[in-house]
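Appendix B. Raw example, untouched.
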Amino acid sequence: MAAGRMIKTGSRRSISVVFGLIFWVGLAGTIQAAELTPLKAIYNAIGGVYTPIWLAQDSELFTKYGLAVDLKFMSPATGTQALLGGSLDIITPGGEFIEAGLVSGKVVYIAGIVNRVVLSLYGKPEIRSLPDLRGKVISALSPGSISDFLARILLQEAGLVLGRDVKILYLKSGPEILAALTKGTIDAGIISAPMTLKARQAGFKEVVNVPERNIPMMQAALGTTRDFVREHPDRVRAFLQGTIAGVKLARSNAAEAKRVIGKYTKTSDQEDLEETYQTFVKVWERVP
């Protein structure tokens, strides 16, 4: 009987210890979650160039540095407006960001993920060089985007004036540009991987391999307001630490990088994923 009571007492104590541990583990998790600092951020294109940020989010690298990041897709123009309005903390800027800086001086770049243009100009087979675009229609993304700036640079190089010698049609995404090229709505378009692979498979030709020209420009960067940097330096530092960790992971783990590219671009085609990864792994800055 005594032995039985001892067994029962021991069992109750064991159960109490187990429940106690569960309680404290749960409490610790709750405390840890409560200690994470919220931060709202966006990326402005569904492109592999932003793989380091996607990895930082998916692999909880931001969490490692104390941030609970709400990461969403948003166009650069809308993102800049939201940043200035205070509803976003950090964005991946477009041309509007530069204009906002010139007008108000309130915004600032805090890092460059890719500091040269990694885009290509693809066109119909008969478009063999830039001068062949005279009287034709090309496409880029929104006005003020990197592809828009690139189109102007390339046309100027060929002595062509946008609007006079060459018309431009702005479309929302790489797939839309490729579709317009296929339908004949445009004669050439500025695209990035993996659309470059799909364009070659469709019989279109690369008119200009821009990466080979090493044109300096922030194709993928991070920006915020000067007020946010001044008032929340720890959050800015933590976001940069998470991003740098994402760059390191992207460069060292091809399989994980391609997994996250597939998730965010909604593609499972292994050729597309390989094309995208090989395009950007060469240009992600080791230290943004």
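End of appendix B.
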